[in-house]
Amino acid sequence: MIIMEQLVKKLLVVVGISLNTANALAYDFEANGIYYNILSEYDKTVEVTYRSGSYYSYSGDVVIPEQVQYNEELYRVTSIGECAFEDCRSLASVTIPEGVTSIGSLAFYYCSSLTSVTIPEGVTSIGDSAFSGCSSLASVTIPEGVTSIGDGAFAGCSSLTSVTIPNSVTTIDQWAFGGCSGLTSVTIPESVTTIGGYAFRDCSSLASVTIPESVTSIGEFTFYGCSGLTSVTIPNSVTSIGICVFSDCSSLKDLTIEDGEETLSLGYNWEDNNGLFYDSPLETVYLGRNLSYSTNSSDGYSPFCNTPIKELTIGNSVTSIGSYAFYNCSRIVSVKIGSGVLSIDTNAFSSTNLKKVVWLPNTPPEGYENVSSARNYVSNDSYNGLDNVTVYPYLSSMFEAGGNIVLNKFWRGCNFRHCR
Predict the structure, then answer these.
(1) β-pair type (60-63, 343-344)
(2) Among 35, 42, 60, 75, which one has the highest count of C-beta atoms within 10 angstroms of its own C-beta?
(3) Quick check: helix, strand or coil at residue 8?
(4) Shortest CA distance to 100 belongs to which of 77, 130, 74, 127?
């Protein structure tokens, strides 16, 4: 898989360091087939590690005890060390005892037969790539107390169908669940503020995702290749979205960017056809906030450039529609422009085939006359720069039925036939 090749490249430095220092990481003692390093003689604590010079130390079902005896002393097991079970491809299950507070980087890396792991409540950190490549792991519950899920922590866990993320987690790091192609849904808790780049890349079975109002940033390529996603809602807490976040989401048709006062920064990269929504069949978009983005031809002018949008609603919180905002959206037929819009860039709707535009602003926005449409519905007769104008003073009561524009007859005294 492409994702795993990229992840392996990312980890080569880490793995290379651990391989070169294998002998330096020799275990301190062994008890009942499990290898340990002493962390503190004073506190009498140890971590689980691997046999000297070899990562292939464990197989079958492993139960780690809470305490272990060595030299007539009892030691508490408090950590699963870095690379402890790395590449143990015959390892089937692991029971981690209460008292363990951390799972180190690469701890279960590529344990491809691992189907079950119990993570106790005391664990507060899960290291980078801790379970990466555990392709048989079907479910995992991350306990309360964990505050961050490390880079690539569960990347490539292709059998993982569900995951429970606790309210204690504040950051989902990059690649955290990348390549989890069996993951069908995920609920991100209100505690999370940052979703790292590639975090859910190529989760091709992911049909729904709930982004909470606590999230402020979504990293690059986060949902790239999530071909099962059909709709996404971006809460008004999000201030930045990285490049290519929704590229190759081949079922994504509905996008809602919730109303908000703060400008949303959208990153994208049109080079090599990698736009923010490239190859995503967007049809319906609700835009509730002002946008900021780079504008130049090499970047494709705007994040929505060339997308197959059919219906667009601009919310009342939006004050400006930027340069080339919906340039070359050739399938767009219907636009509703919110009452707060004050300006529309000259090229905002260039190369479109608009059939109808509903104008809610009482005062025509600057640049409004550059929007060409077969039919314009306006609230007053000040829109004299437009052709094909129909004036309805009570546009806020307008709705659609069977493809026809309809007004509440109690406001206008109009019937269905009159308002077509």
Answers:
(1) unpaired
(2) 75
(3) helix
(4) 77
Q: What is the DSSP string of 408-419?
A: -HHHH---TTTT
Summarised one tens digit per residue, pLDDT across range 252-301 is 999 999 999 999 999 875 655 567 898 899 999 999 999 998 766 555 57
Residue 118 CA, chain-centre distance (Å), reads 26
CA atoms within 13 A on the CB side of 75: 26
pLDDT in tens, 119-151: 999 999 999 999 999 999 998 889 999 998 999
Q: Among candidates 183, 232, 191, which has minimal Cα distance to 212?
A: 191
The answer for residues whose C-beta is within 8 angstroms of residue 49's C-beta and 6 or more apart is 25, 27, 35, 36, 37, 81, 83, 84
**Can you give the pLDDT at residue 18?**
43
Instruction: In whole angstroms, give the CA distance from residue 349 to residue 330.
Output: 9
Amino acid at 159: S
Q: Compute CA distances 12 → 8, 17, 54, 372, whole Å.
A: 6, 8, 17, 55
Report pLDDT digits (tens) over 376-395. 999 899 999 999 999 987 77
Mean pLDDT of 184-203: 94
Closest CA to 202 of 181, 185, 218, 173: 181
**What is the predicted pLDDT for the residue at 227?**
96
Q: What Cα–Cα distance (Å) separates residue 185 from each residue in 163, 170, 211, 379?
A: 8, 19, 12, 43
Judged on CB neighbours under 10 Å (0-12, 13-18, 19+), 186 is buried
pTM equals: 0.86
- What's the Rg (C-alpha) of the chain? 27
